[in-house]
Amino acid sequence: MAEPAQQQEGAPAGALDGIRVLDFSRIFAGPAATQILGDLGADIIKIEEPGTGDGARSFGVTEEAMARYGASPSYLALNRNKRSMVLDLRKPEARELAARMAAECDVVINNFRPGAMATFGLGYEQLKQANPGLIFCEFSAYGDSGPLSHLGANDVALQAHSGMMSITGEADGEPVRCGTAVIDLHASLALVSGILAALFHRQRTGQGQRVETSLLRSSAHLMNYFYTDYWLTGAIHKPMGTANHLSVPNQAFPAADGRVVIIAPADDMWKRCAAALDPERLDKPQFRTAFDRRRNRVELVAVLSEVTRALPSRVIVEKLGAAKVNVAKVHDVGEAADHAQLAAIGGVVAIGEGAGAIRSVSSPFALSATPARIDRPPPELDADQAAILDQFGIGQDERARLTQAGAFGAPA
Amino acid sequence: MAEPAQQQEGAPAGALDGIRVLDFSRIFAGPAATQILGDLGADIIKIEEPGTGDGARSFGVTEEAMARYGASPSYLALNRNKRSMVLDLRKPEARELAARMAAECDVVINNFRPGAMATFGLGYEQLKQANPGLIFCEFSAYGDSGPLSHLGANDVALQAHSGMMSITGEADGEPVRCGTAVIDLHASLALVSGILAALFHRQRTGQGQRVETSLLRSSAHLMNYFYTDYWLTGAIHKPMGTANHLSVPNQAFPAADGRVVIIAPADDMWKRCAAALDPERLDKPQFRTAFDRRRNRVELVAVLSEVTRALPSRVIVEKLGAAKVNVAKVHDVGEAADHAQLAAIGGVVAIGEGAGAIRSVSSPFALSATPARIDRPPPELDADQAAILDQFGIGQDERARLTQAGAFGAPA
Prior knowledge:
Chain A is built from 19 helices and 14 strands. The first copy, chain A, is of the alpha/beta class.
């Protein structure tokens, strides 16, 4: 497992071959981050609590589905390329073992509440004594200082706190959430970015460091241009359905079947849009410039809707695509997941075979010289205890002692 | 600026000190990515087209605001720590200069349509001849192969295409967009991650490579657990307002003033929630387990709404926060931007002084040994031509020749 397939002149096959990650993270952001590190070739050792393991395993799943698939779709989507071992961190023996393992890892990552790792004897100040090159990652809800740092939160809490919810919804309607956990998943890439920056720095200098992020940082990054606008001009934007305040047209329009979004922010693109669909009704002086179109938004949307409502979505997409106008069909989840374009760019990965195969989405970038390695399905709870203990040189006597002490969960 | 402040024993002050990035990217995702690289200490050379420059400079701004602030809030939010130079890539002399510059850079990044850089003589196959360690990044709408690769698109188009829009909105209402450009901004972190992985690999092996991503990859990553759920079970989720399908309660509730989100997915957290707010009405057998609460969602939401509607949001947040139940107020953009917590964790950065200061959001992660360097306000168009030409050793005669040829835009 830790043997990297050699590609050429000793170059690693994966960008992170040989990098070992001790992963205490649970639920979404942390596991999504370590899945990407695993795709890049890192060895991901997922430490889980006894019994339930990572809470995402049972997240939102019916008892029947749990029995059928073994874990929730969320867990299966975010935990390939990892190995699992149970440790009961309430037991001192388990904490000691974790500290020994951390001494031989490159990266430790957790999303316990701020300070919890230190109470386990696993804080950065403690672990770096034995391992000064360690990259130690903490991920929390609101960060580790400030008036809200003691609060827990999840994606939807930060959609509320950050103002994202207040700009999402029908015009004049109630705020709604973005349907997917964008803040959690954005945070996963913030973690990946921070870890990779720290690894690069360590490779140049030998120096390890602490990487810190939070749902709050992730949410603020997703809201950044709204905040800068507010700080500069005082503007407090509101929901606009599928439209936005930046340009017109830039929203969904009705087709004879379903809906399409049409976006033509630039004047020449709008001119091509009007020409492709119905120049007589659309190529009007009151719509000519970006300022005109924003000023006459209501009229433009009404007229363009009349035009599109008469056409099948396929025709609208073809005509506007050919005219180099931004256009897309509003897909449901199934149409999107199965669309040929996603598979064509390598966006879908399958692990396992036949009925047991798990399909999931690839890491969100591709590297030409060090392509993603996808070779392990999401692990069953504690599936890799023996291999992991071998790897860290934990002998049979010691295993017996640890088992007796309940370090791996209730003694058998 | 290229002089890294030395921190200790030759260790770079920023993780990317000494890394030089030639940045052809425009609008959102690419500029957001290079801003983060700049915060990490890289030297970002922003190449812009003559006249308008980066289209984001005027995106969605009134003529008055443009005159007052010099550029749009979006541009100002995403372009600190860069220097700007205009090149007219329609001119062969400008392309030759760009190729010479690329030969002395570590990273080249662009979001032209797939293939455009190659037609300029600036494709990866061309540039790597002179610079085999180059990291060459391409960012496009749908990727560079497959049936949709010829189409342009923006954030909202991919919110439609990816199914994100189809799960966002009121239950039984029309799909709406997530109010902010989540797919673009998520793609920015995918770019940062890919570039940093490639830099780490190059540091270990000397080998450069091509980094590729797209709005499509970013959107699919944000939708990943919905796709895996669909592939596994056939489930096609629909909008649920502020709620989601994973657990109950997990949505916004009315307060006497405004709204709060309350999230209590685990049974013990729900018990604490009920105890803190109104045990008599909430601590009921039909709400006891996660499966019970999903089954009796309508009843639970109705009763909990009655309870919260009588309380000020401040009281709800205090009571539930103290009970370790996830809770957050639904803020508007101004409340969110100005919340003390964001400033407390270093989430707000200001550049410049007095009335000219620009406030923007920090990079979405923090590194303890190599903190972010924030030292340049977003550049005015072409502000750094002379310094950049000096840096690449372009002498006065050559500048005159390039100017004459229109490489820097229409000759003066």
